[in-house]
């Protein structure tokens, strides 16, 4: 009897504790209007001060903006936290992964969240940091056919006003997902930032993609070189990818900085910003779209862009170009490419300062004569499926 | 990059023609037919050279694939389930082949048991769009991966032979 009493009392105590901890974690009430009043209790005072400093004209505008973040890993989670702390209007998060203890070398997620889905765990933390931000989560892989349609639908209707999002941020870790975002944004004519950290964790980049105006992800595929790979190098020790919280934090910082510059209209938004951690080298450049891009929507956007009158753009581009040229080079400083590039044919033409094609796309030749090609006539698909099953 | 026997295997798999992904309706059906023709030919070649090592089939739309692959090591047969989706950006991007039951057992794998193909396979695929199909992904991606990983996993005791496959 007294045992039961004791247990009841214990439950009561624990319930009380739970309530208290819940109250503690529910940090503050929602704030309807961003105030620039300088008091300790105003979470936006330091951000609104950007206006007084003459950096941003209209900081409150951030409350009306929606950003989609694809991939909530090492870069994406930090990106989401930064935008949340800046008071962004709405975040739409996509990821299909779970938090793992192996992620703890990165920022944001905590050990107790292991096992939870990344988007759920992130949404909870972000909401407690800033309840003013609306957060929508999607827990699926965008590269599969069914999810792709949902993805397209979501980014074209999920802004605060029900329209397309203001910007898409790619924080994914693989080629397939990047190509998927590229396909979607070219079709929907949405601006997006690509970001990435190399597999060896010591370099990274961000790239601003305006369909038709700057190179899309398919215009300049990663310069993977296929020649001379020894089968033996396949067997590498350790994991597929290394990662450092530093590099990821830096890339997330670059990404959000340029996101803010673009969205709030201050400074100059970088089209490409690279980071080489070994030398602390930060190249910036503009990548022009490839007129022969594989993506037909990219070519269509290029035609649309070419048809638009542009006075301002040419001006700003000229500025950027001049910035990179140094008239006097007193110390004779020049960059030496340390990587041995494997050239094939005439692959040396420069696309932009410091970039070379690693290989040329093979010419489209008439393959009829020499190559073995599958026949298009013959059995129907159903017959083929049945045949395959029967082997 | 590839050794002589792989080159020979490869040259006997029919190349594909139609550049179409699962969103391309009729063209996708055409591509799918080519995929099946290439796969059937490849499996038949494997059987006739006594090197039969996988079976695959797909859903009606050809967007989800599943089947089995096996690897013989010291006269014992190790069998694994395969599954993968055709990505929306196919064939520009290769399918991500997965062996879910090995998830977490080797570092050369991504979440969900997707095998790590970055170094040895993806560059090759990228240069052969749209001529390479699923059969090529099996021959150049999964085949070499199994040949490197499975003996290593057996040696480390991570996978053991299952008695049940007494075929």
From TrEMBL, chain A:
GO biological process, one term: protein ufmylation
Keywords per UniProt: ATP-binding, Metal-binding, Nucleotide-binding, Ubl conjugation pathway, Zinc
GO terms for MF: ATP binding; metal ion binding; UFM1 activating enzyme activity
THIF-type NAD/FAD binding fold domain location: 44-293
One GO location term (cellular component): cytosol
Keyword Nucleotide-binding recorded: yes
Top-level division of the source organism's lineage: Eukaryota
Stored InterPro entries: D-isomer_DH_CS1, ThiF/MoeB/HesA, ThiF_NAD_FAD-bd, Ubiquitin-activating_enz
Function: E1-like enzyme which activates UFM1.
Family per similarity comment: Belongs to the ubiquitin-activating E1 family. UBA5 subfamily.
Identification of the protein by name: Ubiquitin-like modifier-activating enzyme 5
TrEMBL record, chain B:
Keyword Transcription: no
Location of the active site: 116
One GO biological process term: protein K69-linked ufmylation
Gene3D superfamilies recorded: Ubiquitin Conjugating Enzyme
One Pfam family of this chain: UFC1
Signal peptide bounds: none
This protein's record includes keyword GTP-binding: no
Transmembrane segments: none
CDD domains: UBCc_UFC1 (cd11686)
Molecular function GO labels: UFM1 conjugating enzyme activity
GO cellular component: cytoplasm
Keywords for this protein: Ubl conjugation pathway
Superkingdom of this protein's organism: Eukaryota
Family as reported in the entry's similarity comment: Belongs to the ubiquitin-conjugating enzyme family. UFC1 subfamily.
Role this protein plays: E2-like enzyme which forms an intermediate with UFM1 via a thioester linkage.
Protein name as it appears in the record: Ubiquitin-fold modifier-conjugating enzyme 1
Taxonomic source organism: Cephus cinctus
UniProt lineage: Eukaryota, Metazoa, Ecdysozoa, Arthropoda, Hexapoda
